[in-house]
Design goal:
It is built from eight helices and four strands, in the order H-E-E-H-E-H-H-H-H-H-E-H. With 215 residues, the protein is mostly helical.
């Protein structure tokens, strides 16, 4: 069960990783500009590290116009993350069940609660929210957060597979994105160098001048 559960995400990650590396080489880096708005892709720890290593910039402080190959790799890593969600009969659920046995239910419930928090807290704080986590929480409740029992539930993984299981958990952490996709509203830039003519009322002359004028 562990071999089947871990094989798919690792195969997807090993295919997506070269695409990200190649695509970042052909991506364009421009100064950070939030006036245009548009669709933004979030950064995982892995994608952030690759951007720093390949482009030599902090992806949070600049705008990276991703090459289509890099976009394909980004979505490949994102699908890997979704497959590794440690709940139910997802690939991540298989891995956690094979590693922890019946204790997997605690991990599944904790992550389900985390999905709700990743929507509720940013929404109340006015931050960017990816409502997909709420969709996944509802979907996982219907699919079941527990893993079906197997015939042999007591035999632990051997040492090699235990190391591979923890490496798979690390892969999930490195590819996880709290806000995968967001839409930024365009901000109207402040005009620079424009001049405005201000008309000020002319103050009335003193009373003495007005009397003298009348005379």
């Amino acid at each position: 069960m562990f071999d089947v559960g871990a094989a798919g995400p690792w195969a997807g990650a090993l295919l997506a990783l070269p695409a990200v590396i190649i695509g970042l080489h052909y991506s364009e880096v421009t100064p950070l500009d939030q006036t245009t708005g548009g669709l933004e892709l979030g950064n995982s720890l892995l994608f952030w590290g690759l951007s720093r290593a390949i482009l030599g910039v902090d992806p949070n402080s600049v705008t990276i116009n991703l090459h289509p190959i890099a976009i394909a790799g980004w979505f490949g890593l994102f699908v890997t993350t979704l497959n590794l969600l440690p709940v139910g009969q997802l690939d991540g659920g298989h891995v956690i069940y094979a590693l922890l046995g019946n204790r997997h239910r605690l991990v599944s419930r904790t992550f389900l609660f985390a999905c709700v928090l990743m929507v509720g807290i940013p929404y109340l704080a006015g931050w960017a929210v990816w409502w997909g986590w709420l969709f996944w929480a509802i979907l996982l409740i219907f699919l079941g957060i527990g893993h079906p029992s197997t015939i042999d539930v007591d035999t632990p993984l051997d040492q090699r597979r235990r190391i591979a299981a923890w490496a798979t958990i690390v892969l999930f952490i490195l590819t996880f994105i709290p806000v995968p996709i967001s839409f930024t509203q365009p901000q109207k830039p402040i005009p620079k160098g424009d001049t405005y003519e201000v008309i000020q009322p002319v103050p009335a002359p003193p009373i003495a001048d007005r009397l003298l004028f009348r005379i």
